[in-house]
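Much of what follows relies on a compact textual record of a protein's fold. Think of the row as the fold of the chain written in a discrete alphabet. An example makes this concrete, so a full record is given next.


***
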Amino acid sequence: MRRFWWIAVALALGSAAVVHAQQPESGRKQARAIRVTPGAIVLDGRLNEDVWTKAPAITDFIQKDPVEGSAPSDRIEVSFAYDDTALYVGARMSAEHAPIQAPLGRRDEGSQTESVVVVLDTYLDHRTAYGFGVTAAGARLDCFYAADEDKCDAETNPVWLARTRVEPSGWTAEMWIPLSQLRFNLRDEQVWGLNVYRFVPASNEWDYWIAVPKTVKAWASRFGELRGIDGIKPPRRLELLPYVAGSSTLTGNRDRRNPFDDGRNLNGRVGADAKIGFGSNLTLDATVNPDFGQVEADPAEVNLSAFETFFSEKRPFFTEGSGFLNARFETFFYSRRIGAAPIGPAPGDFVHYPQTSTIIGAAKLTGRLPSKTSIGVLSAVTSGERATTFDLASASRTTVLVAPTTSYTVGRVEQEFGPNASTAALMVTAVHRDLRTGDPLASLLTRNAVTLSGDSLMRFKNGLYELSSGMGVTYIDGEAPAIARVQRSSAHYLQRPDKGYAFYDPNRRSMNGGQGTVVFSRTGGRHWLWNIGTTAESPGLELNDLGKLVAADGITSDASIQYRETQPGRWLRTYSLELEKFNEWNYAGDTQSNQWSPRLSVTWLNFWTTKVQAWIFGATQDQHLTRGGPLMRLPGAVQKQFEVESPAAQQTQGKLGMYYLTREDGSALRYFYGGMGVRPSPRWQMSIAPTFVRDTDARQYIATLDGGSPVTYGKHYVFARVDRMTYSTQFRLNYTLKPDLTVDLYAEPFAASGAYSRMGELVAPRSSELRPFDVPGNRDFNTKSFRSNVVLRWEWKPGSTLFVVWQQNRAETDPVGTRASIGDMFNSIRAPGDHVLAVKTTFWLSPR
């Protein structure tokens, strides 16, 4: 891995001296930038400098919505200028046919606000691009496009500025984009790919300089060109972002016998991030002792299944530039494994247990070379974590290791080739835990986990057809109890007594497996789209050390066909009708999934959308219901979904939907969800998203007990009927004092209950019949939870930010089956829990 790192660095340094001639491509639109002297532009949004009367403006925009191909309703003028340190953009938007909708909002929130965005393909590779935009209210919008498609990674946060000014006849914008925030090669004359678009929410109008047709899957490959920039050099790129943070945790219902809670629990942290440019193409992001205290908490849940819930990544270090590290089939790398909660046991009357594994440091090298090679390398180290226990009887403390020192490495190289921008990639991941033989944690965790994978995307006929494929192998090793634990996990269940093709071996010290995928698709065209694909995962495939795997041992086939209409008609603006067929078998040929899914999606002339979908599930022989026991029949089911949603651009918007599932064994699921967002004033934004779930499962797994009949391999596989109720609501309240100073509130009250009845054991494998069998003990529950974040965010100078955070995490569970109610949900705010008050500030330093 070290060799790979230094090869990447050498390529980057070598690329800085390469001069590539660029020739204008026939048929592409061109814009020109003019050179200005330093200080010629005052960034105030007024466009009253002479520069903006001399610089040629692009005005030939095309409407993409609501009437594709038409001229914009109002005039748009965008001009470009530059000096040795920055690119400047001046934009003038007329507003004669629709009012200017310009509520205040924080950075990267522009769905309800009029905006203009400039997108630059600075490498002119017709694939990657950076977007810089601003709303009429002055909030910045920025994103990174990692592939030739209009799919934006908004987690990138370059340091740049924009100012706007709203007038009765329209609005103007000025942007200052430092060259240090752009990636480009050393050339005598720079030629960059360019697109510009404007969004007018009052009329749902999208106007583009280069309007890629709706029937085509493309983006940067269709851009025009920005020319006239010469005599500039890629600047030295070095940015430092040190931080200081302090927090205090206040515990509700404090137990004064607890020696780990002094009522204040003060903590202080320091750390730093750095961004270093290697040549003009690669960037090294490094962090020491990172802090993510301002990141929003995960939603609450009660998980009664055998499978892990995979929450989305929200930590900035891992989200920015993630496209360079994630494969086309996103299973081999799941960044939330890094710094995850320890799992080692630490029993005691009082326990001070770490909630996460501390990331000592991490580094990430990403970028794209002139040879159209994309590189992503990540390395991270987490410290060994210890829990401290306290025994009341002896008044003694004990320190227990609950997580070992662990190193993580991810490397991915992707090469683009051919006239249709096809790609081929190779990826490796590795995890090493510092575990000695005899260490208690060595019986729980693998010592080494390595994966090697490759994927490719072959594009034909200008991207109209795509052939995606991927293949990977995995290897783990460690002490025999740790490997046995993996074999028995829900991803494998190799101990299944009727599994005659992959066997459980409690003495093995390593395990390997493989995965392969092929998908052939038609991705463009006026009406018809389709895809057909298959995936195979061997029983020994294991990804959950640094990836994500729900279940191995599967062969799938998936096919879908879609008819769509993108041109408005008399009643509908767009619609699509799709039919999908999905099947899965294990390696013995037992059906694990057999479903048909028709779906209809409609966009009405007023931009409201309606979605109707159904799933018809055939009966299967499920290999997971008995949690390591024999196959069990899962009866067929029918599920339906209906959803209606107002346009996202409306300042008052809403969504309402429901799922309804019925199964042949009497199980039923009713899932209602909705959402409403309002703006009572330009500075305030409020939203509420409630959900209600009533889930009756006739075959909820309880336990596996010895002493069963020979028919069930000497075991009792016990199930019960569970009646579950869940109420949850997500509240968001945002107040914007100015675009760089915001206060955001997120709160989620949650209540769930479960009442168990009709207990019984499985009569025979491959059936779903139960006979009465009682297991003593109360499994009913009534759970309440309240999680909230209040974050004041102030970017007090470009790149430097102050955070003031107040978090609450409250929860309690009672062993009663009383049905949860709306009142329980709101009463969750009274549950015992912790208050965390934290202050953090970062300082952006960039040597000139």
Q: What stands out?
A: The first helix runs from residue 2 to 15. The chain is about 5% helix and 50% strand. The two ends are 33 Å apart (CA to CA).
